[in-house]
Design the sequence.
């Protein structure tokens, strides 16, 4: 009798403490009351409120196209991207100027059959100046250092 009671009580405690996983619920469902029965003292566990996930709109065939282009002559920043999605298939390309003066162009595709694939090309740009900021040296005044003084002890 006491072993059964403690086994049921241990199970209720493990579920309440989160030691035993509880299945996630993603739809509206009535909250069932979990009740543990024993012969003498009765242990009753009340179910926690059921959390439901908000209903989201689902597009079975998403489609989009977008592009951007940045050309900043002041900072030298140059980058662009074009991407298109039709269902589960995505095609795109982006480019940027790397710090070493090369233009990196990445063409990529993604689909359920082949996964994500990218082809990276690096093109040397002779006309691109590497922007190097220099800081003028700061003149620090040097105070005249005192000359060492020799101390002699007379015995």
Sequence:
């Amino acid at each position: 009798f006491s072993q059964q009671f403690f086994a049921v009580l241990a199970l209720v405690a493990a579920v309440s403490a989160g030691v035993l996983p509880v299945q996630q619920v993603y739809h509206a469902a009535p909250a069932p009351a979990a009740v543990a029965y024993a012969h003498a003292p009765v242990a009753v566990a009340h179910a926690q409120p059921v959390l439901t996930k908000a209903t989201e709109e689902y597009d079975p065939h998403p489609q989009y196209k977008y592009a951007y282009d940045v050309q900043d002559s002041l900072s030298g920043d140059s980058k662009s991207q074009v991407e298109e999605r039709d269902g589960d298939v995505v095609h795109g390309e982006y480019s940027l100027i790397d710090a070493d003066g090369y233009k990196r162009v990445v063409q990529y595709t993604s689909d359920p059959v082949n996964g994500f694939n990218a082809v990276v090309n690096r093109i040397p740009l002779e006309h691109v100046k590497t922007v190097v900021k220099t800081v003028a040296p700061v003149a620090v005044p040097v105070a005249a250092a005192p000359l060492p003084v020799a101390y002699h002890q007379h015995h």
